[in-house]
Design goal:
Blueprint (H helix, E strand, L loop, with lengths): L14 H8 L3 E6 L2 E14 L27 E6 L3 E7 L7 E12 L1 H7 L12 H8 L15 E4 L10 E4 L16 E4 L2 H5 L4 H4 L18
Antiparallel strand pairs: 1-2, 1-6, 2-5, 2-8, 3-4, 4-5, 7-8
The chain binds a DNA duplex through strand 3, strand 4 and helix 3.
Organism: Methylacidiphilum kamchatkense Kam1
GO molecular function, one term: alkylbase DNA N-glycosylase activity
Family: Belongs to the DNA glycosylase MPG family.
Length: 223
Amino acid sequence: MGKKIGLAAYLIDDPVQGALFFLGKKLAVKDSKGNIAGIIVETEAYGGAEDKACHGYGKRLTPRNKIIFQQGGITYVYFCYGMHHLLNFVLGPEGVPMAVLIRGVIITEGKELVKQRRKGNPEHHWADGPGKVTKAMGITLADNGISLIGDRIWVEESGLEVPDSEIERTPRIGVDYAEEWAKKPLRFVWKQAMQRIMPSLINASSSSLNKDRVKTACSPTTH
DNA sequence: CTCTCGATTAGCT
DNA sequence: GCTAATCGAGAGA
């Protein structure tokens, strides 16, 4: 097991910095049936200023969102669309709602267990979405609010270097209701992750990974 | 491969 | 009541 990332990394007050920092890092979960780990390849930044898509927007405190107001370094797991759990890392000082949503992971350890959990799905779709990440890694509401420096869920320093040129920035997914905040480019995808980490899966996966779900700026070139 | 649509329920108004 | 930081099946190409 590699060295855990310490508390200081979670106490930053900029969710964008956090979303970038965790790309390429190894996320690990200790399960009674064995450890599962993978490289984080997609994140979204929430919070800061007046982010209307953040569950802590307006500083309304509710039973669901109270965790996101706590000091960074813990998980924020919540139940979404009636059937999915979504994993966030809480950032920042107490009282400030900030988090990074973990949207995609490439599983590198504990594959046998994940294969069972994600039965019926090809490997490149094991954890390529926020609901799939938690399902593959066995994360549920029981993990809400636990320490990320503990022995159940943690992030390791031994990550991979992610070149800036391989990071794609797009608006966040599924937050159309957030008015002007819906369009802000706060989603980060490590485009070349699969070929860097699991090149053997490229053949099987063709070109569907990292597709643009959201239109990006038009190219100013040609014509 | 892409697109559409139904599933299913906690949390809020 | 209504909506939601989504997924996967099914149909068409």
